[in-house]
Amino acid sequence: MNYSSTKSNLKKCASLAAIAVTASFAMANNTTEPGACCVPQADGGYLCYVLTESNCEHQGGYYYGNGTSCSDPFVECESAEEPGACCVPQDDGTLLCYVITSQDCQAQNGFYYGDGTSCTDPFVECDEPQSHRGAGCFEDASGNLTCQMLYENECLDLMGTWYGQNVTCSDPQVNCVVVNEEGACCYEFDNIWICDVMIEEFCVDLDGFWYGPGINCSNPQVECYNEPVDECEIHEASNCAGRPRYADPEYSQVFGDGRVAVETAAPSILGGQVVTVFDLTNLNLAPNDSWFSINRYSDPDWSSQILGSIFGLAVDGDGNIFVTATKSWNNDWPGIGGWGAVYRLDHLTGDVTVFATLPNTGASLGNITWDCDNNQFFVSSMEDGLVYRLDASGAILDKFDHGTPWTGSPGPAALGDRVWAVEVHGGRLYYSVWNEDRLNKSATEANQIWSVALDASGQPTGAERLEVDIPGYYKSGQTEYSSPVSDIRFTHYGSMLLAERSMNGWTNLTAHDARALEFECVDGVWITDVNRFHVGDNMAFNPGHNASGGIDAIPEQLFASGDALDLGSPDTIYGFQVLPMSGGNVTNSKIVDYQDNLTVQDKTLIGDLVVTPERETCPGDTNGDLVIDITDLLIVIGDWGPCGNPGGCPGDIDGNGVVNVIDLLAVIANWEIPAESNPCMRGGECAPAE
Q1: DSSP code of 470?
Q2: CB 68 within 8 A of CB 75
Q3: Number of helices (H) and strands (E), helices first, in the chain?
Q4: Which of 142, 295, 360, 486 is buried deepest, with most CB atoms within 10 A?
Q5: 3-state class of 249 per DSSP?
Q6: DSSP assigned state of 367
């Protein structure tokens, strides 16, 4: 390594930094505010003028400081009393020019252009005097047209129509009538015809057809029809959940850089921790069908005493966890936010806050999903069967109602109107409809997956579309049926994953009657192999039907929450199972116990599941602490030169096997930029710049 060259470069960097600091200090202290200045005269005397400090020095005067005036008692020279142009504010909001002294200008809150200036000087920017007002028609804050006597510039500032000097509002030529009444507009978006109520001007901007004021979209004359599309479509999944970055050393100093899984559990789970995060960094090194050591983290606040009964689970792009209140366990109680609560678990501190409270008399909520394309959430409610759309702050934007309109009666919603799983994919909201369960078997109504299109703002629009009828199965000679779907995910390749949950009605949960299913879109039709994924121990009754309602996937693996993953042979494992995407059972799967207690059966106590991406480091962050500082610089200098295999040392930032000036510049370019503001950050994690 050429240390002298490096030292010289660092000196140059330091010199440039010093120049930058000096320049910024000078800019921060630069001012053009004038003050009193005693200027020497030809007769040997001194007269006071209000000048800037630089102008005072240029004329050889003595400057008394910014904001001083010639009338101040400490100014020891007579005022020249030469007036200048002053823009004085008027009651009507205009600025009129007067030639007055600086003191008089200041007393009238005017803007003074300097001694000796005149109103005709080109740099004096006062308003032209107007002697007459006239009728001005403009839109007020409520959107209504109103008429007032205004100067022309006042009216134009209000984007109004001015009718001329001395024209009164009662003059017949003044047409101040409301013309922006809303009406139905039919316009095309993403090959879908959408009807929305708006003013004609907005409709024209969308190249739509406006039906006139007062016409709503339900009016029979509104023809905004889409041909039904019955075929499924393949879209790559967004998979935009972020990875949490808890400051707690039990997480930050223990977890690796790999993916993490988040899982919910019943309030009666041993220990009472109803949300747990799992470190998947070394997952692929684990043995199949056996216990293995895995790091877990659960903040003390993630307890049943605070959160109560929760099931639904979503993770936003920053790694914040969102969970929903539920009555779907056999022993339930509300958390601090009540039965309509959506809770937010902070991605840095783990702190619990009530993110939203939805209308609820006690039936609780269903599931939740984050729509990263529109930065919003969808939450299903068991109370009314509605799907609520929430903005990023938790405020309710609107509601979507599937099936029979809600009558306002208390929940839970009836079978056929009961929506549970929700997921956004390919510009559509997918959701499950609960039509039957173990207690309510139906020979005619299968559980179903439906979808509805989202418009440009992310709002459900148009007609709902039936995607699939869930195939049932026989058990001990009983009527064919299936358990309701509680979770939906989409794979990297666009196939649809479903997790069932063994329910006996809404408030009673059983086990061994739920599957993990994959539907692939082939030639416009969803098809499935119901035997591809077997979740749980291969027990004699219902082998592989031990899913517990949560599902997710990465390109090569499927994750499913489950009961009885290993039932006493030799361990008792309840938590989640990781299968190859090609399919299989516990014999070719990794199995993880929720609380690492291999003697207790957590039957009917395991819930939803989400898997996040890996953590990626920022360019220049050689030690992965999310701040680029002197430590990273010293690592690069210490590793200078050939590095063996590409990526074989931390200082090799570009991974070419040599630590050189390119790696050094990567550190300098991101110097001391914390993780929250680094431009290469995405979703709270370091990631390549987009």
Answers
A1: P
A2: yes
A3: 9, 41
A4: 486
A5: helix
A6: E
* DSSP state letter for 285: G
Q: Are the C-beta atoms of residues 374 and 387 closer than 8 Å to each other?
A: no
Per the CB < 8 A criterion, the answer to whether 663 and 653 are in contact is: yes
Distances (CA, A) of 592 to 148, 512, 599: 74, 18, 14
Which DSSP category does 64 fall into? -
Amino acid 18: pLDDT: 36
- Cβ-based neighbour number of residue 598 at 10 Å: 14
What is the spatial distance between Cα 461 and Cα 185, in angstroms, rounded to a whole number? Answer: 14
Residue with tokens 């899984």: 261
Name the token pair of 332: 């339930």
Q: Is residue 9 within a helix (H) or strand (E), and if so which, with residue range?
A: helix 3-29
| Domain locations in the chain as residue ranges | 41-77, 82-129, 249-611, 630-686
pTM (2 d.p.): 0.64
d(CA 647, CA 663): 12
Place of tokens 């605070």: 306
Q: What is the 3-state secondary structure (H, E, C) of 524-590?
A: CEEEECCCCECECCCCCCCCCEEEEEEEEEECCEEEEEEEEEEECCCCEEEEEEEEECCCECHHHCE
Contact 469, 463 (CB under 8 A): no
> What's domain 249-611's superfamily in CATH?
TolB, C-terminal domain (2.120.10.30)
Q: What is the edge-to-edge ordering of all strands in the sheet holding 376-381?
A: 365-371, 376-381, 386-390, 396-401
Among residues 274, 295, 276, the alpha carbon closest in space to that of 286 is found at: 295
Alpha carbons within 13 A on the beta-carbon side of 140: 9
Mean pLDDT per 10-residue section of the chain, whose length is 690 residues? 40 36 36 79 82 84 87 81 82 79 83 83 77 80 80 82 84 71 83 82 87 80 67 85 93 92 98 98 95 96 98 96 98 98 97 98 97 96 97 96 85 94 96 96 94 93 93 79 97 96 95 96 94 84 87 96 88 96 96 95 97 79 76 87 69 81 83 52 40
**Residue 21 DSSP code:** H
Residue 224 to residues 197, 214, 294, 455, Cα–Cα distance (Å): 12, 17, 55, 14
pLDDT for 537 equals: 83
